[in-house]
Amino acid sequence: MTTPSPKKPVLPPGHHGHWLLGLNEHVKDPLGALVRAQRKHGDIAYFNTQQGPLYMLAHPDHAQRVLVDNARNYPAPDKRPSRLLGNGIFQSNGAFWLRQRRMVQPAFHRSRLVRMVEDLVLGTEALAERWEPSARSGEPLELLEQMRLLVPTLLGASLFSRGVYERDAGLQASVAFLSHKSHGSARDSLWKLALRRLGYPRSRRQQFDAATDALNASLYGLIAARRQAPSAGDDILGMLLEARDTQGEGMTDTEVRDELVSLLVGGHEATSVALTWTWYTLLSHPDVEQRVREELASVLGGRPPSSGEALQGLHYTRAVVEETLRLYPPAWQVMRRAQEDDEIAGFTVRAGSLVILPTWLLHRHASFWKDPERFQPERFLPEQKEQRHRHAWLPFGGGQRMCVGNGYTLTLILAVLATLLPRFQVRLVPGHPVTPVASNTYRPRFGLKATLHPAPAVARNDSPNLKAVSS
């Protein structure tokens, strides 16, 4: 009896030539390359890259296969422990990642989020006080920069309790540098990419090392002081110190440090960008902004939220944030690596290949989103959310490795909006280019310039108008 020959792999259409032929396009415009591939080849396409075979999978069913149904075959790409992030949950894999994830997750349970809101509001009110002179003078502010200054302060309050972050100048300076001054652009030329690979410019490397050393000194100092205190504290640092794995073992100082950095530095930029895009969608749609103001007046009575329970009544405002994350997802792609051959949509995904789930494309898939380029918050009101493919909206990823801080991020954005909108009318500066760029995050390349004005009076309305909004 003859043994049947193995099935010949069927590769998707796409770029099968030498990786050098497509390198320039991917370096200059990685998202654009995926958009063009979908238009030309459909939801699954193949690229031969310098990192080996790469598959673009742009259908929600593909995302479900990779992130849930066959997730064991698609771990996150291996990352070596880095000088900055260490081996926290953003870097680690396997059994160690699962242990750390289980120990970190309770810090973001809903009951803890509710208790964090007061500090989020107080930190945002401090920003509002700094905004008052600009509101009187009409001097423009750059909102992305403002959000990059605000978010680590709020994260610091949640991680270390209120006031600790503000009192530690070294911690503030190192986070400021590591979080946004070190961001590069996806349009860097090839020679700049090569220089970075070789470790140049040296001055930037020295600055990075100095900022990392300062960050470590601050964090290890906070950890040591907290271990010696009578109580671990009712903040995320305290919870990490008290966490125990299934064997009853706690985290080492290094493991606690790595998770703090993952949350503080790793989560800061994406949250700042998400807040900036939320301002943009509100300011670009005055009718939506008005309905948000009406809901804030109705639910909160014109006052900042006093608790997490108050935020839970902001259904329309939350829908605005979620629709913003659909059109402008800071994490615009999810990457995995196939361990064994798999078959998706009739095509072979070869073992060892990189797989990209382009969140940006999933959020615009015409089979799952009616008029996908239209900004329509009503898509995310409860009755419509129930009908959606659960993997058509993945701003925080999906499956086991969904972002551990997804609920915290939404809570933070709602707290910021609920605190600032009743005090200010924010208006875009005419003529300032709002040009998205897909780099480490999907963000406005030139920021977002706006002027501040006193907020208009809003009559309390117990039934805000939630009819469909067109762009």
TrEMBL record:
PROSITE patterns recorded: CYTOCHROME_P450
- Coiled coil (residue ranges): none
Source organism per entry reads Pyxidicoccus parkwayensis
Q: What is this protein called?
A: Cytochrome P450
Look up keyword Heme and say if it applies: yes
Q: Family, per the entry? A: Belongs to the cytochrome P450 family.
Keyword rRNA-binding: yes or no? no
Keywords, in A-Z order: Heme, Iron, Metal-binding, Monooxygenase, Oxidoreductase
